[in-house]
Amino acid sequence: MTWPAQKEKDLEEQEQQARFEETIMPHLDAAYNLARWLTRNEHDAQDVVQDAFLRAFKFFGGFRGGNSRSWLLSIVRNTTYTWLQKNRKLELVTVSDEEIHEIEDTSSNPEVLLLKNSDRQEMMRAVEQLPVEFREALILRELEGLSYKEIAEMADVPIGTVMSRLARARKLLQQSLSLPLEPGASK
Amino acid sequence: MNCQEIKTLKHAYADRELDLIRTTEIEQHLNGCRACSQAYENIRALGSALKSGDLYFKAPAQLKGRIRASWVVENKEAPTHSVAAEVTRLKDFGGKRVFAEIRASLPRLLRFLRHPLGWVVPVAATALITFLVLPALIAPSTDERIEQEATASHVRSLMAAHLTDVASSDQHTVKPWFDGKIDFAPPVKDQATQGFPLVGGRLDYLQNRPVAALVYERHKHFINLFIWPASRSANTTEKPAMRQGYNLIHWNQSGMTFWAVSDLNAAELREFVGLIK
């Protein structure tokens, strides 16, 4: 004994779920990778991703094609920031644009960057130490290969800010990953 | 292109974000400038170190299952609660809302029906009628709700010493004040010569929308005249009402809906409305 309308609705739901599995589920790794880098903890990342997927599933009716990975990552990003806001407020200190520009490299004579024969552990630590907004830009650019425009839309900042954040993130990483320079070698 | 420009653009260049012309310009510069090309190489080296560093976290195997399980739970708990449906539900009143309630509870009810314990159905139906249908029948009509809101607004405007946002008896000051604050132009007429001087205007909020409130005075009694675009354009005759000792008169005219509220007696308020119309 099934109600026809109910049956139709069930079908609709099944269809939607199938569509979701097809277009959104493949980006689960990307979602987890971003959440993992932003929360810096695998358990928190799993919670956040589950929550983000629940929201994505709810909003999926409003998704009108386009880049499904960016769409999902935006939701993951927002969910993560809400979570950080609630649980780790101190990490959300925004670095102003001026500060970013101030630390732009001033040396006119860059040394050859000798990356330490750093193991994965050391690199991870270096990336995790970056302020969250720099870390986010770096991960989205270097590991996800997103364009400046996509990152800017996701973080709701101008493209110039994305560029500054990346520059700063790289500068900081170069500092913590390269071999110590002899004092006085750089300006 | 000089070294300073390269400094700002080298990241965008390394990330292939620049147009062809600037890319070529930078390439030319890098070919001739050791310092800049070294800085650029450093960015590249860092990039490949990150990419090859095994830094990409893959989702743990059980996460997919966890996510799917969470949908099932969510679906059971809230059958039709999409965000959009929630918004509509909150916006709608009276009959429409009850309809939404019933529709929302249908899947749950149907699961009930399929259950071997078929006898619970009459109980559920009774509960449905008691809690959903009856309240709808005795729910206040739209007009009654506006009466209530308008009266409350009137009382509040006198209580909170916030009678007017723009205090002026000059209609040419009050009317333009509303420009840009609301999306319609309320008719403003001073009636001082008739014994109802304009006191000022105020922005108020009724029926989930910003409305214009004009304040008039009559022998120390204040009149709040609320105005907003009518949902139906037809003109209507004045409808008097009374609530908590306040007199109200409501009418529609030239596409606007008007509500006058005051502690004035009904006859004088009618006189006022006659002047405004």
What would your notes on this structure say?
The complex is a heterodimer of chains A (187) and B (277). Chain A contains 9 helices and no strands. Chain A is mainly alpha-helical and 187 residues long. Chain A folds into 2 domains: 4-91, Orthogonal Bundle (Rna Polymerase Sigma Factor, Chain: A); 97-177, Winged helix-like DNA-binding domain superfamily/Winged helix DNA-binding domain (Arc Repressor Mutant, subunit A, Orthogonal Bundle). In chain B, 53% of the residues lie in helices and 18% in strands. Chain B is built from 10 helices and 7 strands. In chain B, strand 3 (209-218) and strand 4 (221-229) form a beta hairpin. The longest helix of chain B has 21 residues, at 94-114. Chain B is flat.
Strand residues, percent of chain B:
15-25%
Could you give me the name of the CATH homologous superfamily of the largest domain in chain B? MucB/RseB, C-terminal domain
User: Could you tell me which chain pair has the largest interface and how many residues each side has?
Assistant: A-B, 55 and 43 residues
Mean pLDDT of chain B: 81
Describe the global form of chain B: flat
CATH class annotation of the largest domain in chain A: Mainly Alpha
- The general outline of chain A is elongated
What is the CATH class designation of the largest domain in chain B? Alpha Beta
